[in-house]
Amino acid sequence: MRVTSSLRAIENGYALVRQDFNGWSAAYNQHGQPLATQDTTVDHDPWIVDVPTHGVTTLYRLTGDTFAWLCLAGTLVLIGMAVIPRRSPTRR
User: Fold this and answer.
1) Running DSSP on this structure, what letter comes out for residue 80?
2) Using one digit for the tens of pLDDT, what is the confidence trace for 12-61?
3) Rounded to an integer, what distance in angstroms lies between the CA atom of residue 22 and that of residue 39?
4) 21 near 40, Cβ under 8 Å?
5) Residues 13/61, Cβ–Cβ less than 8 Å
6) Which residues, in sequence order, are CB contacts of 13 under 8 Å at separation 6+?
């Protein structure tokens, strides 16, 4: 789960703090680098982390899932072209 959290920080370009009651809590910067971690199964001390408040603009933040939807549409078009029989030229 820790890898997924760091990927979300990179994808959206902002710092991310993932707290967990019984496991690993972690804070990541906008580049996915861990700022601090804490094992909450062992450590019960207060956890203080300074995280950046401003992120960076990423391609995903600008386009969202547009690329994924275009890939899906292209796949459906290719499947449709493969399934629909081509007309043979009529001979006279």
Assistant:
1) H
2) 888 989 888 888 889 999 888 889 988 888 877 888 899 988 888 888 88
3) 8
4) yes
5) yes
6) 30, 55, 56, 57, 58, 60, 61
